[in-house]
Amino acid sequence: MSVTDLSVASTSFEVGFGAERSEIGGNGATLMLATPWLGGARGERLLPGARAAGTSHGFSLWEADGLLMGASVQPVGGSLRRTTRELYTRLFRTSVGWPLYRVWNYVPGINAVVDGRENYHRFCEGRAEAFEALHGSGFKRALPAASAVGCGGDALAVVFIAGRKLPQHLENPEQVPAYEYPREHGPRPPSFSRATMAKTESGRRLVFVSGTAAIKGHATVAPGDLGAQLDCTLDNLRLISRAALLGDALGGESTVARHFKVYLRDPATYRTVRDRLEAEWVQPSDHVVYLQADVCRAALEVEIEATLIER
């Protein structure tokens, strides 16, 4: 990995929300996203005490305990498919030698339809092409946990975490793996696993749970019914929690630091969703961010993701 402007600073990288446009600032120490904030924490630091590791191929980099975190923002220009492929190609050059654990994608106009094609499908094409160019036809075995939600502005923003140790990727037994979706969901299926488990260099356990929504098999459940979609989403979280050997509640009673992001299509549903999650799922020690964002399928109202870090 070629890195420039190496720094020994210990100020952690922070992701913030509610900006007018997505951009990296603070000498590479912050990523502000054009994703409206609704409640909970105003920002997120997944690697407290991380050391700035300069820049590489347009990514601002931070390291901690054998983990590499990077962020980049690229204007879309004329082609979201091409922009995605180019950004992921830069990501792979940046993270060479570091297996990917998690990728967050913030896609402008994710549900917009241009010339009969949805932007999310164009994004999925570019991402799959980049993975295939790197790993060949067997690239599905290397797909990490991920999420892709909408944002404002005209730039694609990506954040990744990779590590020194080989990860284990997990699937939900009641969902078709996203990378095997049929063509009705787009010409190239989404390139991610439902969750990824790994360990830091010091042996702390990590579990990254992808954006999780009301999907069974490969079909959307209960379009237009927020309560039923939330039921299904929480059931899917329970299933992936069991697959990660964390019981039914993603380690809610263990020594795990839990970070959740909750994406809501309609900001008017914020209090309803927050009250239910606080009653059934979220604990006072959890770090939770509620955001307004279009979800990858226009019929989905809510998506929840989680990052679990052994204390």
Properties at a glance:
alpha+beta; 311 residues; 21 strands; 60s Ribosomal Protein L30, Chain: A; 4 helices; disordered N terminus; 20% helix; seven-stranded mixed sheet; globular
In short:
The protein has 311 residues and is an alpha+beta fold.
Give a verbal description of the structure:
The protein is α+β, with helices and mostly antiparallel strands. The protein has one domain: RutC-like (60s Ribosomal Protein L30, Chain: A, 2-Layer Sandwich), CATH 3.30.1330. 20% of the residues lie in helices and 36% in strands. It contains four helices and 21 strands. The strands form five sheets. It has a seven-stranded mixed β-sheet with strand order 4-20-19-21-16-15-14, with helices on one face. α1 packs parallel to α2. The protein is globular, with a radius of gyration of 18 Å. The N terminus is likely disordered.
